[in-house]
Amino acid sequence: MTTVKEVLACFRALHRIRKSVFHGDSLALEAARQKIGEEFRKNAAESDHDKITEQLKIGWDCEMLLREKVVQLQLNKQGRYELKLRQDVRLEKNTPYIEMPEDLSR
C-alpha cells in the first residue's frame, strides 16, 4: 500500500535534486520549488491507491529526468556559455550530421 512515507520521500527527493540541478540559479530554483509544491498540493486529497501510485511514478520519473538529463549553461567572462556537468548526467551518443550526396537528395 502506498504510504505517506513514500509520498514524502518523493517530495524530498525532488527538492534535493532541484537544489543540485539549479544550483546558483535563483529564478529556476524558485520556479521548480513552486511547481513541485503546486503539483503535490493539487493531489493532496487523492485517496485512490492506483492514482496515487501513478502520480508517484510521475514524480520519480521527473526526479530521474532532472538528475540525468538536465544541464546548466553559464555565461563566462568571454561571453561564451560553459556547460556545467554534474556527475549524474548521462550523455547520449550523438550521431554526427553527414551531408547527403547530390544524387540521393532528389
Automatic annotation (TrEMBL):
The keyword Calcium does not apply. It comes from the Eukaryota. Pfam families: Complex1_LYR (PF05347). Residues 5-60 form the Complex 1 LYR protein domain. It is found in: Mitochondrion matrix. The keyword Chaperone applies. Keywords: Chaperone, Mitochondrion. Interacts with UQCRFS1. Assembly factor required for Rieske Fe-S protein UQCRFS1 incorporation into the cytochrome b-c1 (CIII) complex. Functions as a chaperone, binding to this subunit within the mitochondrial matrix and stabilizing it prior to its translocation and insertion into the late CIII dimeric intermediate within the mitochondrial inner membrane. Belongs to the complex I LYR family. This is Complex III assembly factor LYRM7.
